Automatic annotation (TrEMBL):
Organism of provenance: Candidatus Fusicatenibacter merdavium
Keyword Cytoplasm: yes
Protein name: Threonylcarbamoyl-AMP synthase
Reactions mediated catalytically: L-threonine + hydrogencarbonate + ATP = L-threonylcarbamoyladenylate + diphosphate + H2O
Residues the entry annotates as binding L-threonine: T37, H69, R123, A143, S183
InterPro entries: DHBP_synth_RibB-like_a/b_dom, Sua5-like_dom, Sua5/YwlC_C, Sua5_C, T(6)A37_SUA5, TC-AMP_synthase_SUA5
């Protein structure tokens, strides 16, 4: 099977293609679509067989639960129950948007979708193409990121085609995503709300709405051995083919350390990649040097992270050195993904 692809923009959605993709989902098929975070691989969330197909297409372990996407506030009640007041408050403030909430599931949601759990992850994306597709599909779309398990999440339709082009029915191509990192996941099933996966919405922003919000100790970069609560955060995700090391410290020292290490590797004939920023681009000469974006614009760093990791795979580099990106708002989310890609290999200078 080769997926059909329909190109469109949020401003000019292709209504016919969206309806057709909605029919695909209603009849148990799989459709990839853009969201504001990353591309999703959608199937009907209330259909156990569709969820099984999603796991098979991604090559994903079936104990790693899927996120149920909705496009109407009132549809939350169909998939979740005993919804705490602060969860409603957060939904009111952040939906539609890059927020996923973990809640108690209803009978409507099959265990195939929740990986056997009694809780369900729910998200109401802001992307207009995603919303139209969810409604065309009947309101409930299970969607993990549309990558092969273990590869960086897709931020363009080309990434989806690369991984899944012959495994799914269709792809709605809405161009490059906005944010580039997956949604913030907040767990409401154990008292104080807890962030299970950092994203565009950070702890400080959530605390302004909810008061105290905890951070799952398992996702803090300093503690790679503590078990994260979200099953998906336990796998070594986002893994580039090359051996990636993150070099941290003051900019000048980082640059000179990366130059030194890259030089040593290249002297041995090893193909080296370097992830730098617009600010430091001219400091590097040898190797496959890629700027991820500008430190003065952290959103650009988040948007380009996964694409750059894929480019290095295509370039067949063997070793990658990356600067660290502890930026003010999304630094925690960016470093969480980068550290996972590096298998927590970091060097402090
Ligand atoms: O931004 C996003 O959230 C994207 C787009 C497509 O919406 N989706 C996405 O899905 O990132 P996925 O499957 O790649 O990641 C879902 C994460 C996994 O880490 C999974 O373990 C966790 O959510 N998760 C899902 N249901 C859960 C539950 N009931 N309890 C704890 N973690 C859960
Ligand atoms: Mg994923």
């Amino acid at each position: 099977m080769k997926a059909w692809v329909a190109r469109m923009t949020e401003e000019h959605p292709d209504e016919d293609a969206i309806q057709k993709a909605g029919e695909v989902l209603k009849s148990g098929g799989l459709a990839a679509f853009p969201t504001e975070t990353v591309y999703g691989l959608g199937g009907n969330a209330l259909d156990a067989a569709a969820s099984k197909k999603i796991y098979a297409a991604k090559g994903r372990p079936s104990d790693n639960p899927l996120i149920v996407h909705i496009a109407r506030m009132e549809d939350l009640e169909t998939v979740a129950r005993n919804i705490p007041e602060n969860a409603r408050k957060l939904a009111e403030a952040c939906w539609p948007g890059p927020l996923t909430m973990i809640l108690e599931k209803t009978e409507a949601v099959p265990y195939e979708t929740t990986g056997g759990l009694d809780t369900v992850a729910v998200r109401f994306p802001s992307n207009k193409i995603a919303q139209a597709l969810i409604l065309a599909a009947g309101g409930f779309v299970a969607a993990p990121s549309a990558n092969t398990s273990g590869r960086p999440s897709p931020t363009t339709a080309a990434h989806v085609i690369e991984d899944l082009g012959d495994k799914i029915d269709c792809i709605l191509d809405g161009g490059m995503v906005d944010i580039g990192l997956e949604s913030t996941i907040v767990d409401f099933t154990e008292g104080t709300p807890m962030i299970l996966r950092p994203g565009y919405l950070n702890q400080e922003m959530l605390e302004k709405i909810l008061g105290t919000v905890k951070m799952d100790p398992g996702i803090l970069a300093e503690q790679p051995n503590t078990r994260p609560k979200a099953p998906g955060m336990r796998y070594r995700h986002y893994a580039p083919k090359a051996d990636l090391t993150i070099v941290e410290g003051p900019e000048k020292e980082v640059v000179s350390k990366i130059r030194e290490l890259a030089g040593q590797q290249m002297a041995q004939g090893i193909r080296v990649g370097i992830i730098c920023t617009d600010e430091t681009r001219t400091e590097y000469s040898g190797g496959d040097v890629k700027s991820i974006g500008a430190r003065s614009d952290e959103a650009s760093i988040a948007r380009h992270l996964y694409g750059i990791l894929r480019e290095f795979d295509d370039d067949h580099v063997e070793v990658i050195y990356s600067e660290a990106f502890d930026t003010p708002k999304m630094g925690q989310a960016i470093m969480n993904r980068l550290l996972k890609a590096a298998g927590h290999k970091r060097l402090k200078v």
